[in-house]
Amino acid sequence: MKKILLRGSWQTKNIGDIAHTPGFLNLAARFMPEVEVRLWPCQIDLGVREMLLDNFPGLKIAETEEDVRRAFAECDLLINGSGPGIDGKGILSWREQTGKPYGFFGISADFAPWTDARREIFSAASFIFCRDSLSVHFLNQQKLNCPLVEFGPDSTFGLKLEKTDQTDFLRKNDLERGRFVCVIPRLRFTPNSFDDDHFYYNDPKKEAAAMRSLEPDMEKLRAVITHVVRRHGLKVLICPEMTYQVPMGRRFLYEKLPSDIREKVVLKREYWITSEAESVYAQAAALVSMEMHSPIIFIVEHKPALLLRQAEDTWKGQMWRDLGMQDWILELNVSSSDLINRHLDRILLDYPDSLKQAESAAERAVAAAGLAMEHIKRILNA
Are strands 199-200 and 193-194 parallel, antiparallel or unpaired? Predict the structure, then answer.
């Protein structure tokens, strides 16, 4: 049996970084059932290890130095999993110690700086699958020696976890299936740390930019929440994709809403991991999000997701256009709350068609993943 070592599980404070790994494992099980995938994780605390083993009982996880040495010896191919960057140090260790091939699956390439060392790592790869067409175009401009640079979706599109029982949460908050919309806020730059009252940054310029945009961005999102309640008679769940968005949602959305609107709004007061979030998302009608990976999970569930892309975020939002969801992405800098609400109206007022669009986008993503996996199999069998 051929063996792949997946480098991923970058962090657990972000349900998207959690989702990459089970998404890839599901895709591999579907398109490469004859191949074993082992995980070389960065972080799998907060219940993520248990979630992975519950869903993939036979998964081997390389956590200790001895585990990694054994994986290097026994695996035939290293794959740097989905994300905004790469583990250059890990790839170099693999190359130096094994001389075996490696590649990238579902990455974005708008990282900085673009150094000679990074160019060499990409040039020596056997394949690079980018989750957005902007990254494909950029890497093709670099005249790399890598024989294949193509579109390959974020592995979160392969996500399918065992649902966790969220009955108590839904019942306690009177959230009925198909009768609520999820909303996720985001700062323009992720803080280095936070508490209930402050966000802390190591870079003063990023802090200034984040704080400057905070209230204008949240004002738009509060207008969307108000519109959902008053125009559509639906409830709203304010929820996090990252840990810092728990106090953010409370302070800048929930507590600033008019009292009559707040009565129809539920605040998720604790962080949750991907399996919990997916289980609730499956009950929702739609999503409005400034983050990227909860929208992907909604599409996986064949539910519509409106992405409000911030200019400071990575190129990954382009995947919405690449997969035919150009009507469901708005550039936040140039989008008024009225424009956002009009797009949301089209989603909710023609809901059966929206469900079909979400299903079609999910099918396109999985089909692209299948093509990528076929190429990976050829590398393994060469």
Answer: antiparallel
pLDDT tens string 119-155: 999 999 999 999 999 999 999 999 999 999 999 999 9
Going by C-beta distance under 8 Å and a sequence separation of 6 or more, which residues neighbour residue 12? Answer: 18, 43, 44, 45, 46, 48, 273
Nearest-CA neighbor of 294 among 178, 150, 133, 186?
A: 186
In terms of residue numbers, what domain contains 252?
Answer: 167-349
The verdict on residue 356 lying in a domain is no
Local structure of 74: helix, strand or coil: helix
Q: How many angstroms from the chain centroid is the CA of residue 34?
A: 27
Within 10 A of 66 (CB to CB), how many other CB atoms are there?
9
213 with 233, same domain?
yes
Counting Cα atoms < 13 Å in the Cβ hemisphere of 159 gives 33
Residue 274 in any domain: the answer is yes
Residue pLDDT, tens place only, 293-343: 999 999 999 999 999 999 999 999 999 999 999 999 999 999 999 999 999
How many whole angstroms separate alpha carbon 318 and alpha carbon 128?
A: 17
What residue type is assigned to position 81 of the chain?
G
Q: Give dist(CA 54, CA 49) in Å, integer.
A: 9
**pTM score:** 0.97
We report the CATH number of the domain holding residue 194 as: 3.40.50.2000
